[in-house]
Design brief:
heterodimer; A: alpha/beta; 6-stranded mixed sheet; 4-stranded antiparallel sheet; B: mainly alpha; 14 helices
Chain lengths: 258, 280
């Protein structure tokens, strides 16, 4: 396996005559943890959607050396796990938390075959890791926002991904639950040796293992490199066109604004 | 009384009507699970009007109304599917335009039709007692195929119903499942034009699923309850139509609504939700 998990060469995406991504060139190594940061409309989610295969684009995209274009790329995309932002769900929707986690194994099992007992055990193990095993028979619509995000994380991990795409997984969660979800993401990264791309807005609530950031502005890469440089006050002020300052407390960096 | 009922049941048109009721209730109700859970009632109503317009056009051109209704339904699905997937336009507006356009086409067709206007009008609310054996066979084949599709692809269907995008991201053939569903929507609606008609079928595409929504969190039970609600509504409607001498299509729709009202009032899911709200 190549040590480059993802390579994007000259990736462009246009919709309704507006450019959503312009000349994106990225190399993301295997087992890297990268933050995708930028103002609203910068193209962060669009970039994840391109990698996940939800959007048509021009340019080249390679996943572990395999070109991600055409029908053959569908199988390779099974190795990409995806966790979206928290979305509302009807409280009466007929799916239990355990069944929702198991939907992550449906693609791997293939048509006309049921996921085996070993997969069910693994799903239960993942729910224990996420501390939601006691909710296995609870309807998903009855879960809190944090519990639902943990279900989606467990679901994505059950897929055995090599690359995990996290699209603002802590958005709309309260601070304690945000921290809990981020700790779980750190734990997953440590135990599973995954490549993780995390879209986030919250500079003060970043996973410990995040070392590299890609800053996007108006669909273009504004900065790509070390997180300590990318998340400096001057860089963020230029990115957001707003005066931002960073300071350190207890070995952690915080961003403040007027 | 019993003798009179048994005598009525011995007539082939009545037997065909009963069989059609069972099949219509089951096929529409199975489909209504998707209509309700994927929140696409507007797609259902647009496609039922496409089938109606297609059948009227078929009569105008001397083509089998089921076939022309089915073809226009599929064409509508081919337009509606990609449109409903596009985030850059409000699907409700497109569906509203589509719905009114298809109604316009249907009524234009009825206006131009120089013969058998009654037959065209019967496509609006169905005509259970004039069904042919061929109508029944088509309906039976469509119902069985839909049931087989649900059984064979149940785990994929569950994944798609939960979240289409997540299903696609984990390798489930989400587009195939979605477009097959649209195909079945076209097939079920057009094969039921002769039973409950293009206008009233919409009730059976929503209400049985809405009944199940009040009663269970289990998807398998959801399909069973929905199918049972559809069949009971159709049979009760037909029975009421016979006893009170009222139009059968309208009676079926009223029976379906009554079932939903009962499910809503006695819903264990709502009781649990109420209890939760009352906990301080």
């Amino acid at each position: 396996m190549t040590d480059q998990a993802l390579i994007l060469n000259h990736v462009f995406l246009q919709k309704n005559k507006s450019t959503l991504l312009a000349d994106i060139n990225l190399r993301i190594g295997s087992n890297e943890f990268v933050g995708i940061i930028g103002p609203n409309g910068a193209g962060k989610t669009t970039l994840l959607n391109v990698i996940a295969g939800f959007e048509k684009f021009t340019g080249e995209l390679y996943l572990f050396g395999k070109a991600m274009t055409g029908r053959r790329s569908q199988k390779a995309r099974l190795t990409i796990g995806y966790v979206p932002q928290l979305t509302p769900i009807d409280p009466g929707f007929p799916i239990l938390a355990g069944q929702a986690v198991m939907t992550g194994a449906v693609g791997q099992a293939g048509l006309f075959r049921k996921p085996g007992k070993d997969v069910e055990l693994e799903a239960m193990h993942l729910m224990e890791m996420m501390r939601i095993a006691h909710l296995v028979d609870r309807p998903v619509g009855h879960l809190s926002g944090g519990e639902r995000q943990k279900v989606l994380l467990a679901r994505a991990i059950l897929q055995h991904p090599d690359v995990l795409l996290l699209d603002e997984p802590t958005a709309n969660l309260d601070i304690a639950v945000q921290k809990e979800v981020l700790n779980l993401i750190d734990e997953i990264y440590e135990k599973r040796s995954l490549t993780i791309l995390l879209v986030t807005h919250d500079f003060n609530m970043l996973p410990v293992h995040l070392r590299r950031v890609v800053l996007l502005k108006e669909g273009r890469i504004f900065f790509d490199g070390d997180a300590t440089v990318g998340l400096s006050g001057s860089m963020l002020s230029r990115l957001f066109q707003y005066r931002l300052e960073t300071f350190e407390r207890g070995g952690r960096r915080f961003v403040s604004y007027d | 009384m019993i003798e009179s009922v048994l005598e009525t049941l011995s007539y082939p048109p009545i037997q065909r009507a009963l069989a059609a009721c069972l099949l219509c209730g089951a096929s529409c109700a199975l489909l209504s699970v998707f209509v309700v859970l994927m929140r696409m009632p507007l797609i259902g109503v647009s496609m039922s009007h496409a089938a109606f317009a297609g059948a009227v056009l078929g009569m105008l051109m001397g083509v089998n109304p089921f076939l022309s209704g089915f073809i226009l339904c599929l064409l509508a699905a081919a337009v509606l599917g990609p449109l409903s997937d596009r985030a850059d336009m409000a699907p409700e507006n497109i569906l509203g335009i589509m719905f009114s356009f298809l109604m316009g086409v249907a009524f234009l067709g009825i206006g131009i039709l120089t013969r058998s206007k009654a037959q065209a009008l019967s496509l609006m609310w169905g005509s259970l007692l004039t069904l042919s054996n061929a109508d029944l066979v088509v309906l039976a084949v469509v119902t069985v195929l839909l049931a087989v599709f649900i059984v064979l692809f149940f785990k994929e269907i569950r994944a798609v119903l939960f979240n289409r995008r997540l299903a696609a991201s984990s390798g489930v053939p989400e587009s195939l499942i979605y477009y097959t569903l649209l195909f079945f929507t076209g097939a079920v609606i057009s094969s039921n034009l002769a039973t409950v008609g293009g206008l009233l079928i919409f009730a059976l595409l929503v209400q049985p699923g809405a009944v199940a929504m009040q009663l269970t969190y289990n998807l398998k039970s959801f399909f069973w309850i929905s199918a049972a609600a559809g069949v009971v509504a159709c049979l009760a409607g037909l029975g009421a139509s016979y006893i009170f001498d009222i139009p059968s299509g309208a009676a079926v729709v009223l029976a379906a609504t009554l079932l939903f009202a009962l499910a809503f009032v006695f819903s264990p899911k709502r009781r649990v939700a109420r209890r939760k709200r009352n906990i301080p």
